[in-house]
Amino acid sequence: MTRKPLLVLTMVFLFVFSLQVACFAESPANLPHIKILATGGTIAGSGATSSTTIGYTAAVAPVDALISNVPELKKVANVSGEQISQIASENMTNEVWLKLAKRVNQLLAQNDVDGIVITHGTDTLEETAYFLNLVVKSEKPVVLVGSMRPPTAMSADGMLNLYRATILAGSKDAIGKGVMVMLNDTIHSGRDVTKTITDRVDTFKAPEIGPLGFFTGDKPVFYRAALRKHTTATEFDVMSLSDLPRVDIVYHYANNTGTAIEAIAQAGAKGIVHAGTGNGSIGKAEYPAVEAAQKQDIVIVRSARVGNGIVARNGEANDDKYNFVAGDNLNPQKARILLMLALTKTADPKLIQEMFWKY
Ligand code: ASP
């Protein structure tokens, strides 16, 4: 072959190759398909001035505004949004949880959805995350995200959080990790994370256990995985449920005489999570109310108001004698989620105890 045709051939090859590279780099077909489900919260809030970080209104901006506010999302995923609710998360209900869980399961069963991001208020974000961690039936990533400052504030944290949550939901490394929470560059397991500070951006922590990983720039980096069973490995199925069994929490303190337990039993609860002192202690003066509740077949879980540590079976109470369930290391609000789901399967405290050690 003479030199000229070789040169032409090389040029044609380089032209076609560069076209393909350009197409590959820009084609949205090569980006993950991520659904953003919006529920409200500060991430969709609005304040009167740019310095308003307290006293703003939560749950104002619709999902399309959240997405268009972060044009960078288009570079990392094919995103589309759906509004599930528009509430401050202190107003979260079983109804919204069931609607959300069913929609997540429907979407993740589709081949054209690779992951889901859920925007949420931070107050009960940990509860929704643990609920979904137990009822989502897919290995595909589900990431909850919120913000501590409304989008109208200086140094608002929601836009970067949403951007990173979307990257995480599309990341292959996030598959099979259970439902995650992403704020402040930190990736947490939905089981272990809790809100620890009322008003600052570094509020989400997993006390004693730590995060799953972090973001370094745009890259999620994992250091560990959650060992407690979740998502496809649980026995819970919410698809046919229209409500959840009523479970309330009582808080123990000095001089408590069990009035709250009596009121909850009267309201028709099927379960009570007792946020006890120390290692889940129940006061002597509460026992008459506790035993009366048990005569109504109400299941009692001993949790702790301390915030850290394991509530030991037969430690501060005789669980075998009283048929209590020891709440492991779940905080009271998470113990409530597991007890509600457990009660959809059984009212036997022994079987429920096994679930508290498994999930
Ligand atoms: N109260 C708000 C909520 O949970 C707080 C927040 O989103 O940060 O919706």
From TrEMBL:
It comes from the Bacteria. It is an enzyme of class 3 (hydrolase). Substrate binds at residues 89, 122-123. Residues 33-225 form the L-asparaginase N-terminal domain. Transmembrane segments: none annotated. Keywords: Hydrolase. Its EC number is 3.5.1.1. The active site is at 42, 42 (o-isoaspartyl threonine intermediate), 122. Belongs to the asparaginase 1 family. NCBIfam families: asnASE_II. This is asparaginase. It comes from Anaerosporomusa subterranea.
